[in-house]
Design a protein that fits this description.
Elements: E1 2-10, E2 18-26, E3 33-40, H1 49-70, E4 77-83, H2 86-101, H3 115-129, E5 132-138, H4 145-158
Parallel strand pairs: 1-4, 4-5
Antiparallel strand pairs: 1-2, 2-3
Helix pairs in contact: 1-3
Keywords: Endonuclease, Hydrolase, Metal-binding, Nuclease
GO molecular function: metal ion binding; nucleic acid binding; RNA-DNA hybrid ribonuclease activity
Organism: Arthrobotrys oligospora (strain ATCC 24927 / CBS 115.81 / DSM 1491) (Nematode-trapping fungus)
Length: about 160
């Protein structure tokens, strides 16, 4: 399964901010997709671009597991998540194991930001790793227009 994900936020991190996360599941052949969009609401913690980017990964992981449960024969699950967020991709590929090993503290000795979302993502990823594999790839923003458009349209519909 191939996903492109994105997150966006207006009034980033401020009271009253609005954020959305989108995951686009591409059909075989890679030209058309099915989107899923979720809104981040509330003020504790306030929605941010980074939280939306991580939530987009969570949406894709949940969706992959949901689709897998509908398959017969239980084939190996191969999930690819592409994002234009270096923060999200680097966190899931390079930093997460270090953070877990450090008790969820970063290299500067501070608590990891967005730990709640990363813990959800790791739990979902581990379920997939029991039955297959997950890869995260950074792509330039211009190659992530589908997910970006889904986010912008969702933000526009909430204003």
């Amino acid at each position: 399964m191939e996903f492109k994900v994105d997150g966006a936020c207006r009034r980033n991190g401020k009271r009253g901010s609005t954020a959305v996360a989108a995951a686009c599941l591409f059909k075989p052949g890679g030209r058309s997709y099915i989107p899923r969009v979720k809104h981040l609401r509330g003020n504790k913690p306030a929605p941010t671009n980074q939280r939306a980017e991580i939530l987009a990964i969570i949406i894709a992981l949940e969706w992959a597991l949901e689709r897998y449960s509908e398959l017969s024969g239980r084939p190996c699950l191969d999930v690819t998540i592409q994002s234009d967020s270096e923060y999200a991709v680097n966190s899931m590929t390079n930093y997460i194991k270090k953070w877990i090993g450090n008790g969820w503290y970063n290299a500067a000795g501070r608590p990891v930001a967005n730990r709640d979302l990363f813990q959800r993502a790791v739990a979902l990823e581990n379920k997939i790793l029991d039955i297959g594999q997950v890869s995260y790839n950074w792509i330039p923003r211009e190659k992530n227009l589908d997910a970006d458009i889904e986010c912008r349209e969702a933000l526009d519909s909430t204003c």
